[in-house]
Design a protein that fits this description.
By secondary structure, the chain is an alpha+beta fold. The protein has three helices and seven strands. Helices cover 30% and strands 26% of the residues. The strands form two sheets. It has a five-stranded mixed β-sheet, with helices on one face. A two-stranded antiparallel ribbon has the order 3-4.
């Protein structure tokens, strides 16, 4: 039976995806004490990137914001894979977002808002977090966006 967090996802018309398999030698998420750290999550849907390229060139800022939301969904799936239940999330502590940016693109914070706003919509006050939004030259598989999340669990 789905918990409250997954019920909220469903209410928002979203489905928790399967965990994205690692692209190299790492785990999608690890738990250390009361914290779960996700690896960087790409905007993978059904095992592939729907969009590639640089934000501000081949990819619009609005498209990239939606992709950041997909990254956050993938991060929640990774958290669930080690925590067992998303209702164990006490709070999102930190989000780090990377945006593959055209040389003149400076809207990284607005892009990563896609991830932040999703976490807030799904988790309410527990989704409020510290954050970094960083522009980079290139990301794995030519992804436009990558997001990693750190959460604190209750009952760990």
């Amino acid at each position: 039976m789905a918990g409250a967090v997954e019920a909220k996802l469903a209410e928002l018309g979203l489905t928790l995806p399967d965990v994205v398999p690692p692209l190299a030698s790492y785990q999608p998420a690890v738990q250390s004490g009361v914290y779960v750290y996700t690896s960087g999550q790409l905007p993978m849907v059904d095992g592939k990137l729907a969009v590639t390229g640089k934000v501000g060139a081949e990819v619009t800022a609005d498209e990239a914001k939606e992709l950041a939301e997909t990254c956050a969904l993938n991060a929640l799936a990774a958290v669930k894979s080690v925590a067992g239940d998303l209702d164990r999330i006490a709070r999102v502590v930190k989000v780090v977002g990377f945006v593959a940016s055209a040389s003149d693109f400076t809207g990284q914070p607005a892009v990563i808002n896609g991830a932040s706003e999703l976490l807030g919509a799904v988790l309410g006050d527990k989704g409020v977090h510290a954050r970094s939004a960083v522009g980079v030259a290139v990301l794995p598989l030519d992804a436009p966006v990558e997001v990693e999340v750190q959460v604190e669990l209750v009952g760990a």
